[in-house]
Design brief:
By secondary structure, the chain is an alpha/beta fold. Helices cover 41% and strands 11% of the residues. A five-stranded parallel β-sheet has the order 3-2-1-4-5, sandwiched between helices. The model has no long low-confidence stretch (mean pLDDT 93).
């Protein structure tokens, strides 16, 4: 019997609609393939380049740190002289700040409906601090109907690490087979399934 529904944030509750074109425009302006800015900003290669002590999702770096020069430095090292230095590259700001934020209203509504019907609800997200003072809102959506919000930057764990998923099980007080999990990345879905969670891949 399903007792809990667990949501990812980016790509599930947070919409990337409209942002994709901005990411592509940044890539073109840099002189790179169209998908470069998006794929590189969320890719494992960039994380490896930063090293274990510097992580956006584990809370040791902020969006301001990365957009202030680190991301462009990485792109220059990887792609060399073809990079155009005069381009402002802010892939994270484009979907997480102010008027750029777009929330899937219908998906948000499901959280409210399920919660009112007695299901436990949680958010499990690889999230980040935006500013160096950690004051800016990281989750610009209605959190009223979530029993638990579990963020990587606070827990210093991130998907697809199974220990991160187990935090949700513990805090909700449910067993793996009692959970339905929604995410938009295959590796996160696969990690949940290995633990025995039910999953829905969000396209």
């Amino acid at each position: 019997q399903i007792k809990a529904v667990v949501y990812d944030f980016g790509g599930v509750l947070l919409s990337y609609e409209g942002v994709v074109n901005k990411w592509r425009a940044m890539s073109r302006a840099l002189g790179l393939p169209e998908d470069a800015v998006h794929s590189e900003s969320v890719g494992i290669e960039f994380s490896q380049w930063l090293g274990t002590g510097r992580s956006l999702f584990l809370g040791t770096l902020t969006v301001d740190d990365l957009e202030g020069g680190l991301f462009l430095q990485y792109l220059k090292q990887k792609y060399g002289d073809k990079i155009n230095d005069n381009v402002v590259v802010k892939p994270y700001t484009e979907c997480l700040r102010g008027e750029n934020v777009r929330i899937h209203k219908n998906m948000q509504k499901t959280v409210e409906i399920l919660h009112k019907k007695g299901f436990k609800t949680a958010m499990l997200t690889n999230n980040m601090y935006l500013d160096k003072e950690h004051k800016e809102t990281r989750l610009p959506c209605d959190l009223t109907h979530f029993d638990e919000v579990v963020e990587s930057c606070l827990e210093h764990l991130m998907k697809p690490d199974p220990e991160f998923y187990k935090l949700v099980e513990k805090r909700l007080g449910v067993k793996p087979h009692e959970i339905v999990f929604l995410d938009d990345l295959h590796e996160n879905i696969e990690a949940a399934e290995k633990l025995g969670w039910n999953t829905i891949f969000v396209k």
